[in-house]
Amino acid sequence: MYKSTANHLTYDFKTLGNLLAKASPPRSGDYLAGLAAANNLERVAAQWALADLPLKHFLTEAVVPYESDEVTRLIIDDHDLYAFDAISHLTVGDFRNWLLSDQATTAALSTIAKGLTPEMVAAVSKIMRIQDLILVAKKCRVITQFRNTIGLENRFSTRLQPNHPTDNPAGVAASILDGLLYGCGDAVIGINPASDNLEATSRLLYLLHDVIERYQIPTQACVLAHVTTTLKAIEQGAPVDLVFQSIAGTQKANDSFGINLNLLTEAHQAALELGRGPIGSNCMYFETGQGSALSANAHEGLDQQTCEVRAYAVARKFNPLLVNTVVGFIGPEYLYDGKQIMRAGLEDHFCGKLLGLPMGCDICYTNHAEADQDDMDLLLSSFAMAGGTFIMGVPGADDIMLNYQSTSFHDALYIRQVLGLRPAPEFEVWLQEHQIFNDHNQLRQNTEIPALFKPSLQRLKDMGQ
Amino acid sequence: MNTLKSSPTSQDPWQNLRQFTSARIALGRAGMSLPTQACLEFQLAHALARDAVHIPLDFSALSQRLETLWNPVQTLQSQAENQTMYLQRPDLGRLLNTEAIATLKKQTIQPIDAVIVIADGLSSKAITHHAEPFLRLLLPALQENAYQLAPLTLIKHGRVAIGDEVADHYNARLCITLIGERPGLSSPDSMGIYFTYQAKANFSTDANRNCISNIHDKGLRYEQALKKLLFLIHEAEKLKFSGVNLKDETTDIELDTLDSDNFLLT
């Protein structure tokens, strides 16, 4: 089944999991796990064998046992055979051809989404080049709503990420205002709390709620605390728009995050019951990233990209407003350099979109990785070309709490300018109304603070600050 | 003529917000992009942070400083032999090397409540700057509880989970690991503290730990970090576990007073 011959050498890859791992483009995490192809020839041989595999086969062999893993059970039990019908006759190689062809229209791609398993999607991505990943993802359309509309064509959203090392309210507020005045924050204003503490989380939830109310900003708020902390905050009556959680692609890895599907279901229900989204009910925000399962020693012998795509099955269950692959955060032991980070970001976006998710990307790197701003610019440019849903907006690209570099407010303006991408329509109206953007979707050349925020800053001046 | 010579960059008229955060706000712009000054300042900070990852920790100097606070102090090493290996093989950074295990085995075991592990991690500067002053506060607090402590254990090229092996060896209930966090552009010397109750080698996971991070001059102060840690210890002793189900519920009085100063909401 998993045999192929390349350059007179015959390879037998034995299991689907092993075949997927050996076919994976090189990255340090798979070497660390001892799963990567031994050399380039073995990798290509695996890619040939994978291309010949019928998509139907993925429905008969689980890469992690059904009995012991609830993510596998979710994938198998929720698989939609009716949606699968249109592509059920294809091999992985033919599936790639189909995706690139005119037959794979936006509508056709939406129709098959529920018929795809994460492993099928991971498999086809492994034999796709970067331009393929961009071209096909660009055809996918995933639209979600809460207080505004995310994912429309030629729109590009940003999460405003006003983190502060001690959650100081004025410090957080300063970064929020800086971001808003640069036109950022339509995906969400989302704070990573410095410590996972109910009291601090509630305080930040009220802060965001009050700012959004006071200035009537058509966006949503999120404090990225552990789901159990957010549940407690909801119990205490705190205003929660989006429930956040980091998720992974195996039950074991989710265990190590202190979560399971029941807990996520409970949190999803709790947020739905609050009913705070005036125009839509997508109320979950998930983050993922290649390597997270391996770092918890819970990868079940799978390569990190396959694990990652399995996490999207978890996300899909809860109709999230936003899913964010935090691609370079984990460090060089999983994604060594700019080249590996770039490919991983575009794979994640493609795989998520194909499965029907509103995929954003935290285009980022740490200071111990072999990467720099040039690498981020290349990934940002390709991600936006691929129709990426949202990126982060961090003041000056420097997150002073999480200690890594992401994308900045200026980066978002760069890509809007080059590709003519606009913010979510409701947010765009707000930006124009308050003289932040002009009619051409450009930041205005303001010599003064827009009237909406003038009184707040005037008071500071009066107080001699 | 005048327009041609006017400055191609514009300043943001909210410079005064910089007093509230060290985040890179109000940078101004050239067109829609970063002005040259801000762009080069970023490159400078990146260069410093990159270099910080590779500066080795002076273990003997640190050991001498710590001996004035506590005796004995021991220095062990993980299975990562050098910094390059440390960066690429996190699995090796979680395991003690054979010499370290031999050193531990030679010691006669007495009942121990707590171990304090200090690892260089990704920032030697963090440990050089913050380990000793923090321990100066922590050690007396632990002694007040009449805790029996293992030797202070310094670990070269250690990851967070290496504390489990040390705690396991001493059969200690409390494992407190101080470690250099990944250097940020604005904070190349940030220290983190991980606390694990009943840490067991090859068994404890991240879900069993509590983390207190961002301890540096512009971040969490030593007193705040200590308060959080003592709260976690106190609660873990009652609940008999640590990790995601143990929530840090300390209130910060300083933050309370600052709330009224939030200029966006007053």
Query: Rg of chain A to the nearest angstrom?
Result: 22 Å
- The number of domains of chain B is 2
Quaternary organisation of the protein chains: heterodimer
Strand order, largest beta sheet of chain B:
3-5-4-6-7-8
Query: How many domains comprise the coordinates of chain A?
Result: 2
Number of strands of chain A: 14
Mind describing the biggest β-sheet of chain B? Answer: 6 strands, mixed
CATH topology of the largest domain in chain B: Rossmann fold
| Proportion of helical residues of chain B | 25-40%
How does CATH name the architecture of the largest domain in chain A?
A: Alpha-Beta Barrel
> Helix share of residues of chain A?
40-55%
CATH class of the largest domain in chain A: Alpha Beta
What are the SSEs and their pairings?
The complex is a heterodimer of chains A (465) and B (266).
Chain A: E1 3-6, E2 9-12, H1 16-23, H2 28-32, H3 40-51, H4 70-77, H5 81-84, H6 92-100, H7 106-112, H8 118-126, H9 130-139, E3 144-145, E4 149-150, E5 157-160, H10 169-181, E6 188-191, H11 198-214, E7 221-223, H12 227-235, E8 243-246, H13 251-256, H14 261-274, E9 284-288, H15 292-295, H16 304-316, E10 322-326, H17 338-354, E11 359-362, H18 373-385, E12 390-393, E13 398-399, E14 404-405, H19 409-419, H20 425-433, H21 454-462
Parallel strand pairs in A: 5-6, 5-12, 6-7, 8-9, 9-10, 10-11, 11-12
Antiparallel strand pairs in A: 1-2, 3-4, 13-14
Helix pairs in contact in A: 1-3, 4-16, 6-8, 8-16, 8-17, 9-17, 11-12, 12-14, 16-17, 17-18
Chain B: H1 2-5, E1 9-10, E2 29-30, H2 36-54, H3 59-67, E3 73-77, H4 83-88, H5 90-93, H6 98-106, E4 114-119, H7 124-144, E5 152-156, H8 162-170, E6 174-180, E7 191-197, E8 209-215, H9 222-239, H10 253-259
Parallel strand pairs in B: 3-5, 4-5, 4-6
Antiparallel strand pairs in B: 1-2, 6-7, 7-8
Helix pairs in contact in B: 7-9
